[in-house]
Amino acid sequence: MNRQDIISDTSIGNKAEAFEAFDDIPTNPNLDRTIGDVINARYGRRDILHGMLGVTATTSLFGTSALIAPSQANAAAHGSRYAFDELTWGNDENHHVADGYDAQVLLRWGDPITADAPEFDVMNQTAAAQLKQFGYNNDYVGFVSLNDDNSRGLLCVNHEYTNEEVMFPGLGRQDNAQFSGMTPELIDIEMAAHGGSVVEIAKDASGAWQVVRDGKMNRRITPLDTSMTLDGPAAGHKRLQTNDDPTGTKVIGTLNNCAGGLTPWGTWLMAEENFHGYFWTDNLDAEGKPVIAEDAPEAASYKRYGVPGMWYNWGQNHARFNVDQEPHAPNKFGWVVEVDPMDPTSTPVKHTALGRFRHEGAETTVASDGRLVIYMGDDNRFDYQYKYVSDGKVSEDRSANAELMRDGTLYVARFDEDGTIEWMPLVHGTGPLTAQNGFNDQGDVMIDTRIAADLLGATPMDRPEDAQPRGDGTAYIMLTNNSRREADNLNAANPRPQSNFGHIIEIKEDGGNHAATKGTWSILVKCGDPSLAEVGAQWNPETSENGWFGSPDNCAFDADGRLWISTDQGGSWDKTGKSDGLYALETEGEARGTSKLFFRCPVGGEMCGPYFTDDGETLFVAVQHPGTDGTKNLAGFERDSTFEDPATRWPDFDPAMPPRPAVVVITKQGGGKIAV
User: Which of 12, 131, 437, 527: CA 20 to 30 A from 208?
Assistant: First the structure.
């Protein structure tokens, strides 16, 4: 199936679904030994294909309680550390939270976030207004406290992409209309709606969170107008030099910012994910496919990264997104961007030492030896899990900490059948990473991180998304799904063919040190419906019918070190019948592998965030693209959403307003820690 087939597929309801379906086609040629093969070898292919594990493997995953017959009883009765009554699964036009909690809509697309911002007028949008208003499709949420009691702070929010069919009146879907309705003004509004927002918030006299609209640190960061610099081994490289920047050290903006992270010193990391979709070419063949000459300087890189994707037509209006005019421009995207939210005049920095790929997130921790460690997944089917380890140590000196993401080593993971993991350094001159294979220097290695990882024999994964490290040398890796995996390329760490529901891997680094280059791994859960043997799901039997989920995406630890998982099923939520939501997942003791549903999204929405304040009393989550994905599967609606006719008008439920992505703040009624 090619791009045009996907665009024309009537089962696909919007551009974002089409984009994801096209990215379902892997670009990785290195599929001889995937994570499915590794898991298959480790746990046994026969048991995996029958949807079950042997007694030894089962008890190693979940403890002796896994040998007890499944029960639909609430997991709290069986040693759960999460004190709440779980929600009932379902999918409808509103959001839902567990009893005893309030879920307040705090920030919506278009809300003014600066003192001089105009009020949102959905029928008369402008780029100038959007640059002062909260952006679209909020994804990562981080909170930087401004006082000791966590009652005031800065929200740092990524804005991943736009859904034009529910964003602009009278426009409709544009990828299947050759972008005929996308005027220069609409393109600029889209660009202004991408990027990120820094917004000050504070508790009022009643304890409710409110936006501080005149906050001095409030700002928007966008691909339309935000100047950035590049540092690290690729900065100044000839492959980063463009007509508007012959130095190769500057770039305007960041885009497709998915998950992210906060550093120990309070800066914000924005991860650039599906950047390839924003690049354009006017050179097309008879079938409308991009034509890139095989001997073009960037041809191999374009192929491995999927450039130009042509899912946005910005390149028709802005030369820097047209590879015919700026062939090096795509190399300025696919990085991790550091922003100082405390200084609204600061210039964001793209750190090339962290590698270039489709970064899902960038979660940090401090290793036992004091060095900075960042875990990062490449969110594409059959791509890799990475981590970065700094040369220097984290200190109280913020200026010294600024150097930590310039000097260090990027590693890529190999998962072995014996349950060990090896982190292989991506260093020029190491093994095959030489000029003979196209790597003339470390800058080349970082620009073409994917190709370098291919040569090292990294393990192709089932869409590695968020990765959350814990202070004891443990990390959890979210593997969302991989419908392209066949039975002949399973492995120990990716065990299921046509994996529609994903799984979660637990890593234990040697010596409890996140900077270690070796460790062990195991599967925490294999997602999907455990009552269907053909799915091959693995949960603690105490997980109720409401608690199991599919497609883990983002994750977070709360103040007590407990793991929470958000899901992203896309337009395929009908395979579970459940909306996306937030789940509490046990990682320890006899309840290990037990999950409970805490919050669920309105129809068509993806669950993003989550983030807890340090005191554990406030939880921020982000509902992305409400009313878009899979609305044909909603009983009683059963059609694609548009601006005029959406499946939900969440969160306003105003007949004059389309659905609006929004950040929701969750607190316990009467106060106190969440789920305690």
Answer: 131
